[in-house]
Design goal:
Number of helices: 7
Strand content: 15-25%
Helix content: 25-40%
Radius of gyration: 17 Å
Order of helices and strands: EHEHEHHEHEHEHEE
Largest sheet: 8 strands, mixed
CATH class: Alpha Beta
Shape: globular
Oligomer: single chain
Length: about 220
């Protein structure tokens, strides 16, 4: 089984959009894909009012013959995971999250979408996406970055935060129409710095402008 961890520099930057694309692309190759949201916040799942979470959005546009998905921990408040859990009288424990993921049935590809940015704590001790990728020994890390002015700084900060030795790449996403000049400068400067860029989704594009992600070649 191969594992891809999808994270980013912030919340609301299109991680679910990119995760959904990766799942669909792998399923077109008739690969069995399991999509996991370890922790989500800001989604009401009561019997009276049930909202769609990230996994439901992904599955709605996926081939269910090949793509399955589930959310392990869900909280209603649109807050950071630890605070959202506390409001419901619950406590997030990092080791429990790891155990929940490891107990899931094996598949060909497992996609794990992070909650918020890579440094958002998943327990009171401050363990976050950095510790998660180490514990799970993931094969690939996709770092989603909103394509805008400031993306160079954000990309370098996230890349410096993740432990060395992982096969990782940046995936840019346009939340609104962007000036081609600004986009070109982002890519040019990061490539000059030898930072890996795996993909770019333009505004509301189902297919990327380009995609060099190595896991599609396996």
């Amino acid at each position: 089984m191969k594992t891809i961890f999808i994270t980013g520099h912030d919340t609301g930057i299109g991680k679910t959009w990119i995760t959904g694309y990766i799942a669909r692309k792998l399923s077109l190759e008739k690969k069995q894909v399991q999509v996991i949201k370890a922790v989500e916040t800001g989604v009401k799942r009561s019997t009276a009012t049930t909202e769609e979470g990230d996994i439901e959005c992904i599955l709605k546009d996926s081939n269910r013959e090949y793509v399955s998905g589930l959310t392990l921990n869900s909280f209603s408040a649109p807050l950071a995971p630890v605070s959202a859990a506390e409001l419901e009288g619950k406590k997030l424990i990092f080791e429990n999250i790891i155990n929940e993921i490891n107990r899931l049935p094996q598949t060909q590809w497992r996609l794990i979408e992070a909650a918020g940015g890579v440094a958002v704590p998943l327990d009171m001790e401050g363990k976050d996406g950095r510790e998660l990728v180490v514990e799970l020994k993931v094969d690939y890390i996709v770092i989603v970055v909103e394509n805008r002015l400031g993306a160079i700084n954000q990309s370098r900060l996230v890349l410096s935060y993740i432990p060395k030795g992982f096969n990782l790449g940046l995936w840019f996403n346009d939340l609104k129409p962007r000036d081609p000049l600004a986009t070109g400068s982002n890519f040019k400067e990061l490539r000059l710095l030898k930072q890996p860029i795996w993909g770019h989704h333009g505004f509301n594009q189902l297919e990327p402008d380009f995609c060099y992600a190595p896991f599609f070649n396996e």
